[in-house]
Structures are given as structure tokens and as C-alpha cells.
Write a structure and sequence with these properties.
By secondary structure, this protein is mainly α. Helices cover 73% and strands 0% of the residues. Helix 2 runs antiparallel to helix 3 and helix 2 packs parallel to helix 4. The radius of gyration is 20 Å and the shape is elongated.
């Protein structure tokens, strides 16, 4: 926990932005501890709560727009080939 506090003091909201962006991009890294600790620092006056919220929302929106663009360029049709398990389930009823 002390290491996270040191990183937040050195990098600030840039760390929150990169952490949330990486999580939303699909990397297996936890963003919630960073958000919780930064929120606690904001309650003590270390950061602006509006800046923290804006940073996290901006990172999420950027990642979501990237996923949306990727899906628009190369759509994957989930219903184009029915799976064997879905057909077997329909016959059981």
C-alpha cells in the first residue's frame, strides 16, 4: 500500500489515467485499488474529486471508443453459426 501511495504522489492522476485505460483495454491489472486510494487522498484534500472522476471517465471513454472502432472495422457475428450446445438445449424442452 505504501508503494501505491508513493506512486500516486509522484505520478498523480496520470497513474490513475493509465491504470484505468489499461484495465478497460483488457489488460489484467486492477484499477480499483488505485481509484480507492486516490479517492481517499481526494477526501483529505490531496486531489480534486472532480479531477479524479474526470480522469477515470476520460480513460474509460477512450478505451471504449477504441473497442467500438475495432468492432466497427471487423465485426464478429455471434449468431452466424449456432453452437451445438444451443441446438441441443432447444431439443430438450
Amino acid at each position: 500500500m505504501n508503494h501505491l501511495l508513493e506512486l500516486l504522489q509522484y505520478y498523480g492522476l496520470i497513474l490513475v489515467f493509465v491504470n484505468v485505460l489499461a484495465l478497460q483495454a483488457g489488460l489484467p491489472m486492477p484499477a480499483y485499488p488505485t481509484l480507492i486510494v486516490t479517492g481517499a487522498l481526494a477526501s483529505r484534500g490531496g486531489y480534486s474529486l472532480a479531477a479524479l472522476l474526470g480522469t477515470a471517465v476520460a480513460a474509460s471513454l477512450i478505451a471504449d471508443l477504441c473497442w467500438y472502432s475495432a468492432g466497427r472495422r471487423r465485426p464478429i457475428r455471434a449468431s452466424s453459426k449456432p453452437r451445438r450446445s444451443s441446438r441441443a438445449g432447444a431439443r430438450d424442452h
